[in-house]
Amino acid sequence: MDDLFATADALAVAELVKTRKLGARELLDGALHRLRALNASLNAVTDFYEGALLEKSVAAAGEGSFQGVPYVVKQLMADCAGTPTTLGSRFFAREPVAANDSAVVARMRRAGLVIVGRTNTSELGLAPTTEPAFGGATVNPWRNDLSPGGSSGGSAAVVAARGLPMAHATDGGGSIRIPASLCGLFGLKPSRGRVSLAPIGETLAGAGAQHCVSISVRDSAALLDALAGDEPGDPYRAPPSGSFLAATQRPPDRLRVAFMRQPVGDGPLAPVLVAAVERTAKMLEGLGHHVEEAAPDYDAAATAAAFGTVMCANTFTNIEVRAAGRMPGPDDLEPVTRLHAEIGQGISAHEYVRAVQTFHRTGRQLGRFFERHDVLLSPTIARTHLPLGTVRMDGTLAQYQQGLAPMIPFTAVCNASGAPAMSVPLAWTDDGLPIGMHFVGRFGAEEMLFSLAAELERVAPWRDRRPPGGKAT
Fold first, then answer.
1. Cβ atoms 299, 265 nearer than 8 A
2. If you ran DSSP here, which 8-state letter would residue 167 be given?
3. Among 185, 291, 345, 381, which residue's beta carbon has the most beta carbons within 10 A?
4. Catalytic residue among 57, 65, 74, 191
5. CB neighbours of residue 230 within 10 Å
6. Using CA atoms, how far apart are residues 26 and 419, in angstroms rounded to an integer?
7. Overall pTM surpassing 0.85 (yes/no)
8. Is 151 one of the catalytic residues?
9. Where are the beta strands (DSSP E) in 289-344?
10. Catalytic residue among 65, 89, 102, 175
11. Is 175 one of the annotated active-site residues of the chain?
């Protein structure tokens, strides 16, 4: 199984199952054995399915594109029938198990995926790292003193270590793309409304999304084909599209690419990140795309403040609703989570509405930028690596914000605006750590991004670049 996941993506593994070159039970047992061995050092999987729960998961899997492929689901934004969704929190670990699958989980199963466990996340997804007090820190397989990022760090660590070829991830401000960048993976956040969040509400005023992290572009595209589509009554709907997998099989048009050497409204980046952007821009130019330096014009400070308002209000509301009358005790929530909830409780209706209006204004400003450009290129994050303990959830709000700031200056605007964006592992530090390049497209343009990503994967492949031994060192 070590060699299989080192060389084969999820679609290739499913083909082996469909053609009976690999037994579904052999695959399942081997994958679980490898996941358990890796998890001893990674602490990425919080719950493994066993016994009747595992057999129900096997029975529920359909015969779709990913027939028989084992899969893990993050402990956030998605319910799996028969297990609790802890949100990375001690407080919610006591919740009753979910009675039903979320809409997206039902679609995963129809696509053939066999859910075998849940992955670690920061508490309520508030941190761009994965170090919850409940369950402990997840380790980056590239180096054991580093975080894999977050809040989808558990899923990213599993895939980076080649425990599985892809895993569920969610993104409210960068939580698919940040761990993809830090773990050397491909991660695409879909457009607002592309994947239904049913039965929960709009999630962060529409900023929340879910999809996966993966070792290949085509796995991500094929999974989005399976997950995309609205449910009755959904508040948002992305524009109609064709097959995302088919988009990976055709070259992109000549694209108008803008690149940024620094975040909007912020200071300069480290030279290694600037150099990575410039090399990627030259690569794109060599592929025939039109490349120029340009940046969208929006108020980054106002967008960040709106994010804080929306995040705090949602934190309080989510705790109140999910707690169903229970009151968190003094040790039930991490200090920064509690601070978010306390601030959120005091936010007025007009403050919240103004924050949502800022999101919409930012989206329109970004939309005007994409009338002149097809793609916006930057680094995914404004640093090269993330030591464990950098983003504090046990200290003051100022300490937390100091750690958060360099993680989201390129990613969060895509959540506010609803635009699709992806992190592609195209650069590396001198000591071999991955650096993700961030590509943003206009609302609804996932096909274009997948086509471009597949082109980049062909000319600058990354699948063979993985942590030594496929595990924490």
1. yes
2. E
3. 185
4. 74
5. 16
6. 40
7. yes
8. yes
9. 290-293
10. 175
11. yes
Residues 6 or more apart from 130 whose CB is under 8 A from it?
88, 120, 121, 122, 137, 138, 147, 148, 149, 150, 151, 152, 153, 154, 157, 179
CA distance 381 to 276: 12
Annotated active-site residue 74? The verdict is yes
Greatest alpha-carbon span in the chain: 60
Copy the structure tokens of residue 14.
Answer: 């499913």
Which residue is it, tokens 């358990």?
36
Residue 237: which residues within 8 A CB-CB, separation 6 or more?
A: 193, 230
What is the distance of C-alpha 56 from the center of its chain? 27
**Half-sphere exposure at residue 20, Cβ-oriented, CA atoms within 13 angstroms:** 0
End-to-end distance of the chain based on CA atoms, in angstroms?
Answer: 19
**Residues paired with residue 292 on neighbouring β-strands, in sequence order:** 258
Whole-number Å distance between alpha carbons of 56 and 115: 10
State the residue for tokens 């919240």: 352
Residues 6+ apart with CB under 8 A from 395: 335, 336
Sequential pLDDT tens for the chain (473 residues): 668 998 899 999 999 999 999 999 999 999 999 999 999 999 999 999 999 999 999 999 999 999 999 999 999 999 999 999 999 999 999 788 999 999 999 999 999 999 999 999 999 999 999 999 999 999 999 999 999 999 999 999 999 999 999 999 999 999 999 999 999 999 999 999 999 999 998 899 999 999 999 999 999 999 999 999 999 999 999 999 999 999 999 999 999 999 999 999 988 999 999 999 999 999 999 999 999 999 999 999 999 999 999 999 999 999 998 888 888 998 999 999 999 999 999 999 999 999 999 999 999 999 999 999 999 999 999 999 999 999 999 999 999 999 999 999 999 999 999 999 999 999 999 999 999 999 999 999 999 999 999 999 999 999 999 998 544 33
Catalytic-labelled residue, pool 65, 89, 151, 152: 151
Q: Which domain holds residue 376?
A: 2-470
Strands (E), 236-304: 256-259, 290-293
Separation CA 219–CA 234 (nearest Å): 26
What is the residue-wise DSSP string for 371-410? HH-SEEEEESSSSS--BTTSS-SSS-HHHHHHHHGGGSTT
- Residues near 239 by beta carbon (within 8 Å), at least 6 away in sequence: 191, 443, 444
Q: How many domains does the chain have?
A: 1
